[in-house]
Amino acid sequence: MSHETVKGDAFENLLREERQFAPSPEFAAAANVKEGIYAEANADRLAFWAEQARTRLTWSKDFTETLDWSDPPFAKWFVGGEVNAAYNALDRHVENGLGDRVAIYFEGEPGDTETITYADLTERVKRAANAFEALGVAKGDRVAVYLPMIPEAVVTMLACARIGAVHSVVFGGFSSEALRSRIDDAEAKLVVTADGTFRRGKPSPLKPAVDEALAEDGHTVQHVLVVRRNKQDVAWTEGRDLDWSEAMASASPEHTAVGHDSEHPLYILYTSGTTGKPKGILHTTGGYLTQCAFTHSAVFDLKPETDVYWCTADIGWVTGHSYVTYGPLINGATQVMYEGTPDSPHQGRWWEIVEKYKVSILYTAPTAIRTMMKWGSDIPAKYDLSSIRILGSVGEPINPEAWMWYREVIGAGKAPIVDTWWQTETGAIMIAPLPGVTSTKPGSAQVPLPGIAVDVVDEAGAAVPNGHGGFLVVREPWPSMLRTVWGDPQRFKDTYWSRFEGMYFAGDGAKKDDDGDIWLLGRVDDVMNVSGHRLSTTEIESALVSHPWVAEAAVVGAADETTGQAVVAFVILRGEAELPSGEGADAEIIQTLRNHVGHEIGPIAKPRHILVVPELPKTRSGKIMRRLLKDVAEGRDPGDATTLADPTVMQKIAADLRK
Ligand code: WT7
């Protein structure tokens, strides 16, 4: 982590954005939350959250204290309250006469579909809760979940929550080793998995990784429950492995949910830090559910009676936890769940799904948006996307060019875009426009949500004035904050609470523009220092992507003897671009792009080198692995690339560079 000074002045000419898009009067008038909500929350932050907790959730026992912050950084929210997550996501909707409302439109990768109502989902979760209990899973026990994007993933999470077991979802793309280390760290008693899933029309296995993970003794797992999804033959360990459908069929469909303490652990989710082994981020019940429900309603302006919501995130990431499972179901939403990839069997698959289900709220990641841009606007143009009324973005800063493309091509120039900043650790959205209130700016996440005390501070922890950059912090505890790192409270303190006295340090650089709106500048370790000037990788990437030839760009700071760091850019060119050809074309492309960056930001930001590559190394969650690019840029062998979605990408890049 960089501890060098962020010189605010160097940000001054960066990220100027003149374009603003005010909500239409009709949208504003009908919006779930209005401007007054900020004043309400400012007047009494804790009263605001207490009100959210009491109106958005049904408590089986009311809480007596909103926040106990007597032992920071260990927070307790809604102290003394009792609440059941599954009851709030399911039973109460059925009791309120909404049993026939569709909870999930499932779209399988091969094209099979399933429509699951709230009544259906409630019954499935009750059966699963009984089945888990029959396998000896009790309150407080950990359950590892290694499943594809199928309804059973949601059923498993909610069944755990119902009985007070703690789920630990491991992304299906992780290796058997990653799975084993997570099983061991959490001491999981049960693993829920599937034979496999489908990828690009073909069966793709999952269970072999579980078998491999459990091959060596010394683990805590007693049973493996296996969903038959792709119906491929799998090895079977008698006594340990059980068939999901058989277990569900023999379980009773009756199960009464009891309230769990507001601070009862809900789940562990592992996330990688800059160093060391992944951290098990622990979320608890009452505060987490409150902020998920509030943000899902306020930021996406959810109208549960009429909207069809689709969050494209996999259940293996926090976005899938907060904005597929908990937020939407607590709010009684109807949502789409899709098992496959965006380009199978064709690059219009997402838009076909939007058209088919009349999706009105779409929540996805900039990397996906840029990929779609690269494929060309003519693909979404073939589908009827007129149902879309809100577009969300999450995961990394969204370049203004991608933002504009999203707005124009997907949102028909009128759907508000909500760029949502948050982290696995924050549990729920922290910074985002409110679509009926905020005039949105391409590229900025803009404003802390009501009741959230986000700030940008300098090296000494003092708030920076508008127009300056620094470190993103949270000054006050918030309901869905992580409670600790599983099994390592010291690491929790060291990682998040030691950099600035009394503040949560997010690890991101940020800037306040002249209006006080917040711009995320990427992780602090992605901020470069070139000749004493602070430059954001994000900023230069945005500049590159704003050129019509560029589809995607990744920038790293490579060590340089004279300037400290030098800017090195890796770019993917757009398939549909009209590029120079013939002799000297490559040099011309590179010179044009260098000049373009110089023009957009200033000569200091001109990349020393621009390398045109066929692909960028990305993690399975879609984050560009800049560390590997840095290795290449600094002339080192990039080494271990096994966590990449496509481990061959680095070989392709290296081969290209040799040419
Ligand atoms: C990091 C957290 C939150 C779910 C997905 C990622 C970056 C996230 C934004 C955004 C700029 C963003 C930050 C943050 N990030 N959203 N809207 N604008 N940056 O969760 O894997 O825990 O990563 O993602 O750098 O620290 P995560």
TrEMBL record:
Cofactor(s) recorded in Swiss-Prot or TrEMBL: Mg(2+)
Location of the AMP-dependent synthetase/ligase domain:
97-478
Domain AMP-binding enzyme C-terminal spans what residues? Answer: 539-623
**Keyword Cell division on entry:** no
**Pfam families assigned to the protein according to its UniProt record, in alphabetical order:** ACAS_N, AMP-binding, AMP-binding_C
Annotated Mg(2+) binding sites:
545, 547, 550
Q: Residues in domain Acetyl-coenzyme A synthetase N-terminal?
A: 37-89
What is this enzyme's catalytic activity, as reactions?
A: acetate + ATP + CoA = acetyl-CoA + AMP + diphosphate
Q: InterPro entries, per this entry?
A: Ac_CoA_lig, ACAS_N, AMP-bd_C, AMP-bd_C_sf, AMP-binding_CS, AMP-dep_synth/lig_dom, ANL_N_sf
Positions bound to CoA: 199-202, 319, 531
**Presence of the UniProt keyword NAD in the record:** no
Q: What class of enzyme is it?
A: ligase
Top-rank taxon: Bacteria
Q: Which residue positions does N6-acetyllysine occur at?
A: 623
Its Enzyme Commission number?
A: 6.2.1.1
Under Gene3D superfamilies, the record lists:
3.30.300.30, N-terminal domain of ligase-like
GO molecular-function terms, A-Z: acetate-CoA ligase activity
Its PTM note reads: Acetylated. Deacetylation by the SIR2-homolog deacetylase activates the enzyme.
Its recorded name reads Acetyl-coenzyme A synthetase
Gene name per UniProt:
acs
